[in-house]
Each structure stands twice: as C-alpha cells, then as structure tokens.
User: Fold this.
Amino acid sequence: MTLFEANEIWPANNDPNFELTIDASQLTAKQTGKFGKNGTALGVVQGSDWLAHGSVTLERANGVIFIRPGRYDFEQHGSFLDHPVRNFETYGGFYVGSRAGTSVGTDYLIRYSGQPNVAK
Assistant:
C-alpha cells in the first residue's frame, strides 16, 4: 500500500469498523527497541513503505516475528515537542490526506498477515 493509496482510503472511509489486510512479507521493518516481557518491540517500516506504515509494534511468538495491527490515523503522538519530527509529518500527512485540510476521514485498522523482513 502506497501513501497515496492510504490517503485515498482515509477521506473516502466512513465506516469506523473498516479494516485492511496487508501482506507483511512484502515489508521490511527495522527493530528499534528490545523485546519486552510482553513479547513486543518497537519497529519502523523501511523504504518508501514507511510513508504509509511508519512506526509499528513487532510481536515475537514462538520465535516468529509479526507486525501487530495498527490504526491509520493522523493523531498527534504525545505533546508536539515529545515527537516533533513525527508530529510535524502527521500534520503534513493530514493536510495532504484530507485534500488540503478541507475534509475529514475515518481512521481504519491495518492488519498484517505473514512475517515481515526484520532488520536490527
């Protein structure tokens, strides 16, 4: 899914229960944190796919790593200064995704099937 496709779906969607399934085997995610006791670690999708998927939560179960489902939205992360680069890009994405700030869309869930390529 490209950023263009993700941003086309968002303003057109009016179903809060809408879900999209992506083949994670086509993605590469860089693990950016250590796996905790709950079996999860932070990750970032690499390459141009980052524009649509961004930061993800990786889950390790029985030695296999998956990407947990995540919402496609334009929500600020913490205060603006907590994550200034991420939040600046979120506002820019909203401007583009909402067709120059003139309309609003409905957030949707992205589920990932298969295993991503994981870089450490």
